[in-house]
Amino acid sequence: MESNVGGIVESKSKRIEESVAGNGLLHRRVFLTQAGALFGAGTMGMLGSETTNAQNMQGRPAWMQSPGKGVGAYGTRARFEDHVQRAAGSAPGTTGAGASRTPLQHLEGIITPNSLHFERHHSGIPEIDPNEHRFLIHGLVDRPLIFDMDMLSRYPMISKIHFIECSGNSRVSGLIDEPVDQNCGMLHGLVSCSEWTGVPLSILLDEAGVDPSARWILAEGSDSAAMSRSVPMAKAMDDAIIAIYQNGERLRPDNGYPMRLFLPGFEGNTSVKWLRRIKVTAEPTMTKDETSKYTDLLDDGTSLMFTYPMAVKSVITSPSPGLDLNGAGIYEISGIAWSGGGHISKVEVSADGGSTWGEAALSEPVLDRSLTRFRMAWRWNGAPTVIMSRAIDNTGAIQPTRDSIIAEKGMKFAYHYNGIQSWAIDAEGRAVNTYV
After folding, report:
1. Residue 388 pLDDT more than 90?
2. Could you tell me the fold of the domain covering 119-285?
3. Does pTM surpass 0.85?
Protein backbone atom coordinates (compact mmCIF):
# COMPACT_ATOMS: atom_id res chain seq x y z
CA MET A 1 0.00 0.00 0.00
CA GLU A 2 1.31 3.46 -0.85
CA SER A 3 0.40 6.98 0.16
CA ASN A 4 1.56 10.25 -1.36
CA VAL A 5 1.82 13.17 1.04
CA GLY A 6 3.61 16.42 0.18
CA GLY A 7 5.58 14.87 -2.65
CA ILE A 8 6.79 11.93 -0.50
CA VAL A 9 5.82 8.41 -1.57
CA GLU A 10 5.93 5.92 1.31
CA SER A 11 5.64 2.25 0.43
CA LYS A 12 4.77 -0.75 2.60
CA SER A 13 8.48 -1.47 2.99
CA LYS A 14 8.96 2.08 4.41
CA ARG A 15 11.15 3.06 1.49
CA ILE A 16 10.95 6.83 0.94
CA GLU A 17 10.76 8.28 -2.55
CA GLU A 18 10.76 12.07 -2.71
CA SER A 19 9.26 13.69 -5.79
CA VAL A 20 11.14 16.78 -6.95
CA ALA A 21 9.35 17.60 -10.20
CA GLY A 22 6.25 16.73 -12.13
CA ASN A 23 5.40 13.38 -13.71
CA GLY A 24 7.35 11.13 -11.37
CA LEU A 25 10.88 12.54 -11.15
CA LEU A 26 12.47 11.49 -7.86
CA HIS A 27 15.11 13.21 -5.73
CA ARG A 28 18.76 12.69 -6.68
CA ARG A 29 19.50 11.39 -3.16
CA VAL A 30 17.84 8.17 -4.32
CA PHE A 31 21.15 7.26 -5.96
CA LEU A 32 23.12 8.06 -2.82
CA THR A 33 21.07 6.28 -0.16
CA GLN A 34 18.30 4.12 -1.58
CA ALA A 35 19.29 2.90 -5.03
CA GLY A 36 19.41 -0.77 -4.08
CA ALA A 37 15.95 -0.83 -2.57
CA LEU A 38 14.38 1.43 -5.18
CA PHE A 39 15.69 -0.43 -8.21
CA GLY A 40 15.45 -3.91 -6.71
CA ALA A 41 13.59 -6.72 -8.41
CA GLY A 42 10.61 -6.22 -6.13
CA THR A 43 10.20 -2.60 -7.25
CA MET A 44 10.88 -3.15 -10.92
CA GLY A 45 8.78 -6.28 -11.11
CA MET A 46 10.94 -7.53 -13.96
CA LEU A 47 12.33 -10.72 -12.42
CA GLY A 48 9.25 -12.04 -10.67
CA SER A 49 8.44 -14.53 -13.40
CA GLU A 50 11.91 -16.03 -13.10
CA THR A 51 11.85 -16.81 -9.40
CA THR A 52 10.30 -20.23 -9.96
CA ASN A 53 13.29 -21.17 -12.08
CA ALA A 54 15.82 -20.49 -9.32
CA GLN A 55 16.23 -24.21 -8.69
CA ASN A 56 17.46 -24.66 -12.24
CA MET A 57 20.57 -22.63 -11.38
CA GLN A 58 21.92 -25.78 -9.77
CA GLY A 59 22.82 -27.04 -13.24
CA ARG A 60 25.90 -25.96 -15.21
CA PRO A 61 25.51 -23.89 -18.41
CA ALA A 62 27.42 -24.92 -21.52
CA TRP A 63 30.29 -22.47 -20.93
CA MET A 64 31.07 -24.14 -17.59
CA GLN A 65 31.42 -27.59 -19.07
CA SER A 66 34.73 -27.18 -20.93
CA PRO A 67 37.76 -24.86 -20.85
CA GLY A 68 37.42 -21.54 -22.61
CA LYS A 69 39.62 -20.19 -25.38
CA GLY A 70 43.21 -19.25 -24.72
CA VAL A 71 44.86 -15.91 -24.16
CA GLY A 72 45.38 -13.48 -27.03
CA ALA A 73 47.93 -10.86 -28.00
CA TYR A 74 45.36 -8.02 -28.31
CA GLY A 75 41.98 -7.91 -26.59
CA THR A 76 38.64 -8.14 -28.36
CA ARG A 77 35.13 -7.63 -27.05
CA ALA A 78 32.49 -10.33 -26.65
CA ARG A 79 30.75 -11.26 -29.90
CA PHE A 80 27.44 -10.58 -28.17
CA GLU A 81 28.36 -6.87 -28.19
CA ASP A 82 29.11 -6.67 -31.92
CA HIS A 83 25.91 -4.69 -32.47
CA VAL A 84 27.54 -1.70 -30.73
CA GLN A 85 29.05 0.04 -33.73
CA ARG A 86 29.83 3.54 -34.92
CA ALA A 87 27.53 4.87 -37.63
CA ALA A 88 29.95 5.63 -40.46
CA GLY A 89 29.43 7.40 -43.77
CA SER A 90 31.43 9.23 -46.43
CA ALA A 91 30.40 12.22 -48.48
CA PRO A 92 29.05 11.29 -51.94
CA GLY A 93 31.82 10.77 -54.47
CA THR A 94 34.52 10.35 -51.83
CA THR A 95 35.99 7.52 -49.80
CA GLY A 96 37.71 9.52 -47.09
CA ALA A 97 35.71 12.68 -46.46
CA GLY A 98 33.08 11.87 -43.88
CA ALA A 99 32.38 10.93 -40.30
CA SER A 100 31.63 8.06 -37.97
CA ARG A 101 29.51 8.71 -34.90
CA THR A 102 29.90 7.32 -31.39
CA PRO A 103 26.90 5.16 -30.30
CA LEU A 104 26.28 7.21 -27.16
CA GLN A 105 23.11 5.29 -26.30
CA HIS A 106 25.06 2.06 -25.82
CA LEU A 107 27.85 3.43 -23.62
CA GLU A 108 28.14 4.05 -19.88
CA GLY A 109 30.43 6.17 -17.74
CA ILE A 110 32.37 8.97 -19.44
CA ILE A 111 35.33 7.33 -21.25
CA THR A 112 34.82 6.44 -24.91
CA PRO A 113 36.59 3.25 -26.06
CA ASN A 114 39.18 4.04 -28.72
CA SER A 115 37.39 1.78 -31.20
CA LEU A 116 34.14 3.75 -30.79
CA HIS A 117 35.58 7.27 -30.68
CA PHE A 118 33.98 9.44 -33.35
CA GLU A 119 35.88 10.30 -36.55
CA ARG A 120 35.73 13.30 -38.85
CA HIS A 121 38.06 13.40 -41.84
CA HIS A 122 38.41 15.76 -44.79
CA SER A 123 40.54 13.60 -47.06
CA GLY A 124 40.82 10.15 -45.55
CA ILE A 125 43.25 8.63 -43.03
CA PRO A 126 46.91 8.80 -44.02
CA GLU A 127 49.19 5.86 -43.25
CA ILE A 128 52.17 7.57 -41.62
CA ASP A 129 55.41 5.79 -40.77
CA PRO A 130 56.32 7.14 -37.32
CA ASN A 131 60.02 6.63 -38.07
CA GLU A 132 59.74 8.99 -41.03
CA HIS A 133 57.38 11.56 -39.52
CA ARG A 134 58.72 14.98 -38.53
CA PHE A 135 57.14 17.87 -36.63
CA LEU A 136 58.27 21.44 -37.32
CA ILE A 137 57.89 24.61 -35.23
CA HIS A 138 58.80 27.75 -37.22
CA GLY A 139 57.70 31.28 -38.05
CA LEU A 140 58.12 34.06 -35.49
CA VAL A 141 60.53 32.14 -33.28
CA ASP A 142 64.18 32.51 -32.34
CA ARG A 143 65.04 28.90 -33.12
CA PRO A 144 63.02 26.80 -35.59
CA LEU A 145 62.80 23.25 -34.25
CA ILE A 146 62.24 19.87 -35.88
CA PHE A 147 61.23 16.84 -33.80
CA ASP A 148 61.03 13.17 -34.63
CA MET A 149 58.95 10.83 -32.50
CA ASP A 150 61.91 9.71 -30.41
CA MET A 151 62.93 13.26 -29.59
CA LEU A 152 59.39 14.33 -28.74
CA SER A 153 58.86 11.33 -26.47
CA ARG A 154 61.76 12.40 -24.26
CA TYR A 155 59.94 15.52 -23.06
CA PRO A 156 57.86 15.41 -19.85
CA MET A 157 54.30 14.30 -20.55
CA ILE A 158 50.99 15.01 -18.87
CA SER A 159 47.63 13.18 -18.98
CA LYS A 160 44.25 14.86 -19.02
CA ILE A 161 40.69 13.54 -19.41
CA HIS A 162 38.77 15.76 -21.84
CA PHE A 163 35.97 15.53 -24.36
CA ILE A 164 36.41 16.50 -27.99
CA GLU A 165 33.42 17.51 -30.12
CA CYS A 166 33.00 18.31 -33.80
CA SER A 167 31.48 21.78 -34.06
CA GLY A 168 28.88 20.36 -36.48
CA ASN A 169 27.63 17.91 -33.86
CA SER A 170 23.87 17.91 -33.14
CA ARG A 171 22.88 20.33 -35.91
CA VAL A 172 20.51 17.76 -37.46
CA SER A 173 18.82 17.36 -34.08
CA GLY A 174 17.45 20.89 -34.08
CA LEU A 175 18.30 22.90 -37.19
CA ILE A 176 15.97 21.04 -39.54
CA ASP A 177 12.36 22.16 -40.05
CA GLU A 178 10.94 18.83 -38.88
CA PRO A 179 12.47 16.54 -36.22
CA VAL A 180 14.84 13.95 -37.69
CA ASP A 181 13.90 10.40 -36.70
CA GLN A 182 17.27 9.00 -35.61
CA ASN A 183 18.89 7.56 -32.50
CA CYS A 184 21.02 9.45 -30.00
CA GLY A 185 24.35 8.47 -31.59
CA MET A 186 23.29 9.57 -35.05
CA LEU A 187 22.07 12.94 -33.77
CA HIS A 188 24.74 13.69 -31.17
CA GLY A 189 27.55 11.16 -31.67
CA LEU A 190 30.27 13.53 -32.88
CA VAL A 191 31.49 13.85 -29.29
CA SER A 192 33.75 11.50 -27.34
CA CYS A 193 35.88 11.60 -24.21
CA SER A 194 39.32 10.13 -23.57
CA GLU A 195 42.43 10.39 -21.48
CA TRP A 196 44.96 12.24 -23.64
CA THR A 197 48.67 11.98 -22.91
CA GLY A 198 51.39 14.05 -24.49
CA VAL A 199 53.76 17.00 -24.26
CA PRO A 200 52.49 20.47 -23.32
CA LEU A 201 52.89 22.68 -26.38
CA SER A 202 54.03 25.57 -24.19
CA ILE A 203 57.26 23.71 -23.35
CA LEU A 204 58.14 23.38 -27.03
CA LEU A 205 57.20 26.98 -27.84
CA ASP A 206 59.31 28.23 -24.94
CA GLU A 207 62.25 26.24 -26.26
CA ALA A 208 61.77 27.72 -29.74
CA GLY A 209 61.57 31.25 -28.31
CA VAL A 210 58.34 33.00 -29.37
CA ASP A 211 58.65 36.54 -30.69
CA PRO A 212 56.71 39.06 -28.56
CA SER A 213 54.73 40.14 -31.65
CA ALA A 214 53.31 36.63 -32.14
CA ARG A 215 49.65 36.32 -31.16
CA TRP A 216 48.64 33.25 -33.18
CA ILE A 217 49.82 29.87 -34.41
CA LEU A 218 48.90 27.91 -37.51
CA ALA A 219 48.58 24.13 -37.02
CA GLU A 220 48.76 21.95 -40.14
CA GLY A 221 48.13 18.23 -40.54
CA SER A 222 49.75 15.60 -42.76
CA ASP A 223 46.60 14.43 -44.53
CA SER A 224 46.26 15.13 -48.25
CA ALA A 225 43.87 18.00 -47.43
CA ALA A 226 46.61 19.63 -45.30
CA MET A 227 43.92 20.40 -42.75
CA SER A 228 44.98 23.63 -41.01
CA ARG A 229 43.59 25.99 -38.40
CA SER A 230 44.66 29.23 -36.72
CA VAL A 231 44.77 29.12 -32.92
CA PRO A 232 45.29 32.01 -30.48
CA MET A 233 48.72 32.03 -28.87
CA ALA A 234 47.04 32.35 -25.48
CA LYS A 235 45.42 28.94 -25.95
CA ALA A 236 48.63 27.38 -27.25
CA MET A 237 50.52 28.54 -24.17
CA ASP A 238 47.73 27.64 -21.75
CA ASP A 239 46.67 23.99 -22.04
CA ALA A 240 47.43 22.75 -25.57
CA ILE A 241 48.95 19.27 -25.77
CA ILE A 242 50.86 17.47 -28.50
CA ALA A 243 49.03 14.21 -27.87
CA ILE A 244 50.75 10.89 -28.52
CA TYR A 245 48.59 8.52 -26.44
CA GLN A 246 44.85 8.06 -26.08
CA ASN A 247 43.44 6.00 -23.21
CA GLY A 248 46.88 4.60 -22.51
CA GLU A 249 47.83 3.37 -25.97
CA ARG A 250 49.32 5.13 -28.95
CA LEU A 251 46.88 7.18 -30.97
CA ARG A 252 45.03 5.21 -33.59
CA PRO A 253 45.38 6.31 -37.23
CA ASP A 254 41.80 7.59 -37.31
CA ASN A 255 42.58 9.86 -34.37
CA GLY A 256 45.82 11.35 -35.60
CA TYR A 257 48.64 8.76 -35.30
CA PRO A 258 51.44 9.37 -34.62
CA MET A 259 50.67 12.79 -33.07
CA ARG A 260 47.95 15.38 -32.94
CA LEU A 261 47.33 18.77 -31.45
CA PHE A 262 44.76 18.67 -28.65
CA LEU A 263 42.99 21.82 -27.48
CA PRO A 264 40.69 21.15 -24.50
CA GLY A 265 37.21 22.61 -24.92
CA PHE A 266 37.76 23.99 -28.44
CA GLU A 267 35.86 22.81 -31.52
CA GLY A 268 37.18 19.49 -32.72
CA ASN A 269 38.94 20.34 -35.96
CA THR A 270 41.27 22.82 -34.23
CA SER A 271 42.82 19.76 -32.57
CA VAL A 272 44.60 19.06 -35.84
CA LYS A 273 45.38 15.39 -36.46
CA TRP A 274 48.57 13.96 -38.00
CA LEU A 275 50.31 17.17 -36.94
CA ARG A 276 53.30 18.12 -39.12
CA ARG A 277 53.97 21.76 -38.35
CA ILE A 278 53.12 24.75 -36.22
CA LYS A 279 53.88 28.18 -37.63
CA VAL A 280 54.01 31.04 -35.16
CA THR A 281 52.32 34.13 -36.64
CA ALA A 282 51.23 37.65 -35.77
CA GLU A 283 47.69 37.24 -37.17
CA PRO A 284 45.31 34.38 -38.02
CA THR A 285 46.24 32.77 -41.33
CA MET A 286 42.62 32.66 -42.62
CA THR A 287 42.91 29.19 -44.13
CA LYS A 288 40.21 27.56 -46.22
CA ASP A 289 39.20 25.50 -43.19
CA GLU A 290 38.29 28.61 -41.17
CA THR A 291 36.83 30.86 -43.86
CA SER A 292 34.82 28.76 -46.32
CA LYS A 293 34.07 26.30 -43.49
CA TYR A 294 33.70 26.37 -39.72
CA THR A 295 32.17 29.82 -39.59
CA ASP A 296 28.64 30.53 -38.35
CA LEU A 297 26.47 32.13 -41.05
CA LEU A 298 23.77 34.39 -39.63
CA ASP A 299 20.45 35.40 -41.16
CA ASP A 300 21.72 38.90 -42.00
CA GLY A 301 24.47 37.45 -44.22
CA THR A 302 27.32 38.06 -41.78
CA SER A 303 29.34 35.25 -40.23
CA LEU A 304 30.85 34.60 -36.84
CA MET A 305 34.49 33.48 -37.05
CA PHE A 306 36.83 31.83 -34.56
CA THR A 307 34.00 30.77 -32.25
CA TYR A 308 36.23 28.13 -30.69
CA PRO A 309 34.77 27.00 -27.33
CA MET A 310 32.06 24.36 -27.41
CA ALA A 311 29.11 25.60 -25.36
CA VAL A 312 27.43 23.86 -22.43
CA LYS A 313 25.33 20.91 -23.53
CA SER A 314 23.64 17.69 -22.43
CA VAL A 315 21.62 14.81 -23.83
CA ILE A 316 19.66 11.97 -22.28
CA THR A 317 21.11 8.73 -23.63
CA SER A 318 18.61 6.42 -21.90
CA PRO A 319 15.71 6.31 -22.49
CA SER A 320 16.28 7.39 -26.08
CA PRO A 321 15.31 6.17 -29.55
CA GLY A 322 15.89 2.42 -29.80
CA LEU A 323 15.98 1.92 -26.02
CA ASP A 324 12.33 1.26 -25.26
CA LEU A 325 10.68 1.28 -21.84
CA ASN A 326 9.06 -1.97 -20.78
CA GLY A 327 5.82 -0.79 -19.24
CA ALA A 328 5.07 1.58 -16.37
CA GLY A 329 7.47 1.51 -13.43
CA ILE A 330 10.64 3.03 -12.05
CA TYR A 331 13.46 3.71 -14.49
CA GLU A 332 16.81 5.47 -14.47
CA ILE A 333 17.11 8.49 -16.73
CA SER A 334 20.78 8.72 -17.67
CA GLY A 335 22.82 10.94 -19.93
CA ILE A 336 25.94 12.99 -20.45
CA ALA A 337 26.72 16.68 -20.09
CA TRP A 338 29.76 18.72 -21.07
CA SER A 339 31.06 22.25 -21.54
CA GLY A 340 34.07 23.78 -23.24
CA GLY A 341 33.93 26.57 -20.69
CA GLY A 342 34.63 24.54 -17.55
CA HIS A 343 33.02 21.75 -15.56
CA ILE A 344 29.37 20.80 -15.18
CA SER A 345 27.89 22.12 -11.96
CA LYS A 346 24.29 20.98 -12.40
CA VAL A 347 22.02 19.04 -14.75
CA GLU A 348 18.26 19.40 -14.54
CA VAL A 349 15.78 16.91 -15.98
CA SER A 350 12.15 17.35 -16.98
CA ALA A 351 9.65 14.54 -17.54
CA ASP A 352 6.74 16.81 -18.48
CA GLY A 353 8.02 18.66 -21.52
CA GLY A 354 9.80 21.40 -19.58
CA SER A 355 6.97 22.45 -17.26
CA THR A 356 8.91 21.40 -14.16
CA TRP A 357 12.54 20.45 -13.57
CA GLY A 358 14.43 18.39 -11.00
CA GLU A 359 18.16 18.24 -10.28
CA ALA A 360 19.91 15.04 -11.38
CA ALA A 361 22.74 13.28 -9.55
CA LEU A 362 26.19 13.79 -11.10
CA SER A 363 28.36 10.68 -11.11
CA GLU A 364 31.97 11.14 -10.09
CA PRO A 365 34.36 12.14 -11.45
CA VAL A 366 33.16 15.61 -12.47
CA LEU A 367 36.09 17.03 -14.43
CA ASP A 368 36.93 20.21 -16.29
CA ARG A 369 35.94 20.06 -19.98
CA SER A 370 35.07 16.40 -19.71
CA LEU A 371 31.90 14.42 -20.21
CA THR A 372 29.94 14.13 -16.96
CA ARG A 373 27.42 11.34 -16.40
CA PHE A 374 24.11 12.31 -14.80
CA ARG A 375 21.35 10.07 -13.45
CA MET A 376 17.83 10.49 -12.16
CA ALA A 377 15.16 8.10 -10.91
CA TRP A 378 11.83 8.34 -12.70
CA ARG A 379 8.53 6.69 -11.90
CA TRP A 380 6.89 6.48 -15.32
CA ASN A 381 3.10 6.11 -15.21
CA GLY A 382 2.88 4.70 -18.73
CA ALA A 383 1.36 7.81 -20.29
CA PRO A 384 2.89 9.67 -23.27
CA THR A 385 5.27 12.43 -22.24
CA VAL A 386 8.43 14.34 -23.20
CA ILE A 387 11.73 14.03 -21.34
CA MET A 388 14.61 16.50 -21.63
CA SER A 389 17.75 17.69 -19.86
CA ARG A 390 19.57 21.00 -19.52
CA ALA A 391 23.11 21.50 -18.26
CA ILE A 392 24.66 24.37 -16.32
CA ASP A 393 28.43 24.83 -16.04
CA ASN A 394 30.56 26.48 -13.35
CA THR A 395 30.58 29.79 -15.23
CA GLY A 396 26.78 29.96 -14.92
CA ALA A 397 26.17 29.23 -18.61
CA ILE A 398 22.85 27.41 -19.13
CA GLN A 399 22.02 25.16 -22.06
CA PRO A 400 19.48 27.07 -24.17
CA THR A 401 16.26 25.97 -25.82
CA ARG A 402 16.01 25.36 -29.55
CA ASP A 403 13.67 28.32 -29.94
CA SER A 404 16.01 30.76 -28.19
CA ILE A 405 18.94 29.71 -30.40
CA ILE A 406 16.93 30.15 -33.60
CA ALA A 407 15.65 33.53 -32.39
CA GLU A 408 19.24 34.69 -31.86
CA LYS A 409 21.03 33.09 -34.82
CA GLY A 410 18.42 31.93 -37.31
CA MET A 411 18.75 28.54 -39.02
CA LYS A 412 21.46 29.17 -41.62
CA PHE A 413 24.36 28.40 -39.32
CA ALA A 414 25.69 24.85 -39.13
CA TYR A 415 28.04 24.81 -36.15
CA HIS A 416 27.92 25.09 -32.36
CA TYR A 417 24.30 24.05 -31.95
CA ASN A 418 23.69 23.17 -28.28
CA GLY A 419 19.92 23.30 -27.90
CA ILE A 420 18.03 21.20 -25.36
CA GLN A 421 17.23 17.75 -26.77
CA SER A 422 13.68 16.49 -26.26
CA TRP A 423 12.61 12.85 -26.53
CA ALA A 424 8.89 12.10 -26.87
CA ILE A 425 7.89 8.86 -25.10
CA ASP A 426 4.70 7.22 -26.35
CA ALA A 427 2.39 4.90 -24.40
CA GLU A 428 4.32 1.89 -25.70
CA GLY A 429 7.57 3.23 -24.24
CA ARG A 430 9.13 4.20 -27.57
CA ALA A 431 11.24 7.37 -27.78
CA VAL A 432 11.57 9.70 -30.79
CA ASN A 433 13.18 13.07 -31.44
CA THR A 434 10.70 15.91 -31.01
CA TYR A 435 10.51 19.70 -30.78
CA VAL A 436 8.69 21.45 -27.93
Report:
1. yes
2. Sulfite Oxidase; Chain A, domain 2 (3.90.420)
3. yes
